[in-house]
Predict the 3D structure of the following.
Amino acid sequence: MTNLSVGIIGAENERHSLYLSQELERQGASPFIMDNMPGKSYPLSFSEEKSEYEGASLANTDVYFLRALFLPTPAFDATELKEEDGYAQYAAERERYAAWLSWLMTAPYHGRLLVNPVDTLMIHFAKPYHLERLRAASIPVPKTLVTGNPEKLLTFSQDREVVYKPVAGGALCRLLTEEDKQPERLEALATAPVQFQECIRGQDLRVFVLDGKVIASFAIEGEGIDYREGTHSLKHYELTPQIEALCVKACQALGLIFSGVDLKLRPDGSVVCIECNPSPMFEGFDQVAPVTIVSQLATYLIDQAHRIQKSK
């Protein structure tokens, strides 16, 4: 397996990209990070016959780990840029994103394995769609309302505890309070829709699934509604076969090869799936994992690269 090439798509200075790259190298592979951060020169060239990154052929790289594909962002800051300059920058970033997206989406047609498939990133930025796919697969998820209408929110929250979070993610989950229901706060809903959910009380669990198997699971103790805020502690947690099967089923429903599944374990032993992350952080969890997630992920990527090379 020595010297098998594995690509990591993300940012050259991002911690998890570097962490995985070091482990791949430790296991004898030849990893490299493909940087698609906005604001940089575009390093990828491809046609029907071949692909190159920074002028080097990708013909012998069959397996890629998709850590991040950065979205184009507007640059309309009137204090620094003329409006037309801001749009030109946005248009350039849109083209960068479209080119990367197109190359990633063609991976299956050229025998390349992408972990995870690029279309699974959509579930990260479209949380309600993500939940609906899980619900359709009979995975228990929180009751959810997406709205910019104050009256609908007040009706939804009348008989239940409610939390709220961005539709596209990227911020902490907050408990809806009586202060939030005051007219001046409700008026803010007119500017953008918000995702509201029933508050599920219980133990936070994070479960890592790889290629249809649970490879690590943890209980998380935090100080508030969202354990990411403030200090929290982690410990290995032994799942029941039923919960393991549910996590695997959820990932299969979303087309995820690798995922960090967030669950709430209720006092009665039932679980509710909060989300399946298509690009989970795992470095911190490895500090208490019996077998590190990064070592198992690296081994899988190398094994798949070896399998594809043998089949050529």
User: Anything to note?
Assistant: The chain has three domains: 5-116+301-311, 143-198, 201-278.
